[in-house]
Amino acid sequence: MKDRRTIKANLPAGIHLMNKNESKTLRQIKMKTGLTEEQIRAEKKYRIILSNAQDQGETPLKYNEKKAKRIKDLYKSLTKRFKLAKEHPIVQAEFKKIWVEHLWY
């Protein structure tokens, strides 16, 4: 089964891929009102409901994703500060120094 990122990357521009919570809410609205998806999205009150469902359906980052983001952010700040590539020994040494001190851990 394809993951969400792969499916979303292959969609044409302008097509929205709903998350699980948003699609469930849309189905419930369709059953109650009998309207189509286009008609539902045209009405403001339903757009607000779907927007709230979309926000609630987002999953928080897992520990490893958070750690990877911290590493990426730290490298990004160091490369900007030194104006060197992340593979440069100075950047690597500074990264190890900061990481060991648990400032970003």
Helix content: 55-70%
Quickly give the structural class: mainly alpha
Tell me about the largest β-sheet. Answer: none
Low-confidence stretches: none
Please report which band the strand proportion falls in: under 5%, 5-15%, 15-25%, 25-35%, 35-45% or over 45%: under 5%
Give the ordered list of helices and strands: HHHHHH
Radius of gyration: 22 Å
Shape field: elongated
Helical segment count: 6
Report the average pLDDT across residues. 87
Secondary structure: elements and pairs:
Elements: H1 4-10, H2 20-33, H3 37-42, H4 44-56, H5 63-82, H6 89-100
Helix pairs in contact: 2-4, 5-6
Report what the structure shows.
The chain has helices at residues 4-10, 20-33, 37-42, 44-56, 63-82, 89-100. 69% of the residues lie in helices and 0% in strands. It contains six helices and no strands. By secondary structure, the chain is mainly α.
